[in-house]
Amino acid sequence: MNEITLSRETYLFNTPLEAGLRCLVILTGLENTGADIQRLIYLDYLLTHYGDVDSDYESLHPSTPFRSGEILIKRELVNQGLHLMVSKKLINIEYGKKGILYRAMPYSKAFLQHFESNYMLKLINVNELLVDKFSSYTDEELKDFIMRNIDRWGGEFVKEAFVRGEFNEI
Questions:
Q1: 45 located within any domain
Q2: Which of 90, 63, 58 is nearest to 153 (CA)?
Q3: Which helix (H) or strand (E) element contains residue 91?
């Protein structure tokens, strides 16, 4: 039996492929609506941490401390993921009066149906909730929602540390 060995250069998480596939899921759910990179960054965060939006749901990714910082540092990763999906002709780039928008191709949904992993199935299910809740938000309304809540997401760990007295000074 062949063993798989991982080196320091092997990355399993937070790769352009992973980010690109999540963006493809989001754009496929939006159907004929395009999204710019900033909206995709916001929606990607909300998709993977939907438990922050609705406590009735468990987030797909762990509730790590300061996870809201992902919103600030994901731009390059999401950009690489989008361009990977564009190179595979799964996402189209449109240049227009509203700037640079990304759209899923007509066959992107059929492509996603070939995935059978539990993670992808959950991703698609949560994306339906995400689209139902946020697709009618303007870019400004989505940004306002993020800014109103960002300090709460991941901040519970800091508050807990204060209660236990683990921080002497800040």
A1: yes
A2: 63
A3: strand 91-96
Give the range of the structural domain holding residue 38, as residue numbers without chain letter: 16-143+150-164
Give the Cα separation of 120 and 104 in Å (integer).
Answer: 17
* pTM reported for the whole predicted model: 0.80
For residue 77, count other CB atoms closer than 10 A to its CB: 18
Residues pairing with 35 in the sheet? 102
Question: In this structure, is residue 3 part of a structural domain?
Answer: no
Q: Distance between CA 120 and CA 133 in Å, rounded?
A: 20
Q: Name the residue among 40, 50, 49, 51 with its Cα closest to residue 93.
A: 40
As a whole number of angstroms, the distance between CA 77 and CA 13 comes to 11
| 4-62 confidence digits (pLDDT tens) | 555 555 555 679 999 999 999 999 999 889 999 999 999 998 998 888 787 788 877 65
Q: Please report whether residue 23 resides in a domain.
A: yes
- In the chain, the number of structural domains is 1
Least Cα distance to 20 among 96, 94, 104 occurs for: 104
Q: Integer distance in angstroms from the first to the last C-alpha of the chain?
A: 53
Task: Give the SS3 label for residue 6.
Answer: coil
